[in-house]
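Case study B.
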Amino acid sequence: MTKSGREILKVSNLKTYFFTRSGIVKAVDGVSFSLREGETVGLVGESGCGKSMTALSILRLVPQPAGRIVEGKILLDGENLLEKSEREMRKIRGKKISMILQDPMSSLNPVYTVGDQVGETIRIHQKLKGARLVTKIKEALHLVRIPSPEVRMRDYPHQMSGGMRQRVIGAIALSCQPRVLIADEPTTSLDVTIQAQYLTLLKEVQQAMNVSIIFITHDFSVVARMCDVVLVMYAGKIVESARVRELFNNPIHPYTIALLRSVPRLEAKIEKLSAINGQPPPLLNPPDGCRFVPRCPESITSCQHTDPPMVAVGQNHHVSCWRVKQL
Amino acid sequence: MKMKISRARLTPVVLASAIIITIIIVTAVFADYIAPHSPYETSLSQRLTPPFWQEGGSLAYPLGTDLVGRDILSRLIYGARASIIVAVATILLAGTIGLVIGLISGYSGGLVDAVLMRIADAVLTFPLILLAILLVIVLGPSFINVIIAIAFMLWARYARVVRGEVISLKERDFVTLAKIAGCSTTRILSRHLFPNVQNPLMVLMTLQVGWVIVVEATLSFLGAGVPPPAPAWGSMVAEGRNYLTQAWWVTGMPGLAIILTVLSFNMIGDWIRDILDPRLRQV
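Model:
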């Protein structure tokens, strides 16, 4: 993979809060990262740590009216998406940034054929009709290796398997040659064999189209396979970011270490997989200081007072932990 | 959906209902050719002629004549026209209003939803007949006003059903994906949510045809419906009720027509519901 593509997407200090009756839920709290052309960035963390909310924030689709992006910048090719009108955003969604969701069973509208649904995005953004639209639909389905697209495009979603549907969703997402593809756990609900196929397919399509991918997952084996850069997220914040090799070889944040230890490995002879004790903290009125403190084996009293800043510990390797020097 | 059709069997009752409805619609449409007499043609010498099978009846007036000697069969046929037109127009009007309000209410949520649904609740709490009479009195009795009055009481049910469906649908991933693809709100409502609420809406609409016919008949019976002398089943029932002992057919025939029609529409409605969505049995 080329590692030197230019920067396409830059998210800085993104904060997405939910204003509820019981208080402010800080779902995304100061997330910054950047994405280069043709690169895959992995967003890893437990359920509810703000991964999906980060993705939806980039598309400006945070659930209204409770959720709001309160601060930050999202620069796509240098243009701040947070300053765009809803109308302008609609032209970006599906065309420049698109997304694949987790559950292929509910991601397609049951009343339309898959061809119609692939065609909708193309029709909206490229204003095509008739035979040219059909050609485009076939191309999109062909791109994700759906056999005999001219036949399958007339199928309804219920006539397809989960893996097939997820490919169709991929075809929809890629139909307008987006610059950025957000894949939100696209393989979590697929069979393991289908998972591997799907990931290979994504990789190939990425190379062919030079699209940048934000890959959201909680599965480190998928990260190892897919990503160039990994961001570890915990309770709405990024706690560690590094290139994938570096992170696997030299994890620093106690949370990253704990996560990696909870994944089974063939080569390491560990008798017991270790679970991370406790629960992620509530994002409703989170405490000051490092949010990992209650579960952290290395924490000291000063960790509870102020939030640790992101510090560089190596080339492209950043950690947010007060004890980074000792670890 | 397609695969469910085999589940709802075409029973003899459904078939009979379908035949009755077809006859009623055909006669209503071609009333001018089928009716043996004009519905307004009076003939005082022939007044209160009984149906042909009773003593004194004649085949010239198969179902007898009324107080002023008008042919009851002809009036029934023309009355069917009024009933069907009122029923279909009312349901379409109420269905459209209910659909639009339900879609908006369910999709926007929050204050809009609260306001719209409280209005719907308010409409639903009114005693229906009373409200309809009131409306017709205010608007003045006419064909169009009867339709408006009944539709006004009816839209709230549709709005509630549609809203409920939309609320459960809008959280589904395909709606999120439509937003991600760059669809506008109008497009999401019309292209993604509307087709998915079509089935329950259709079921409710067909189930209520019979009900609207009854309401229209009731209004006509009370003199607040289709204005006389235009034939309407309800007013025909009303006209004969003082002569029930001497001439049962004046009231009985339109009464029978109402019963048969409403029953047939309800049977067909049930059947369509079973085809489209067996989950809706409690609607």
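Chain A has ten helices and twelve strands. The remaining cases will be described in the next quarterly update.
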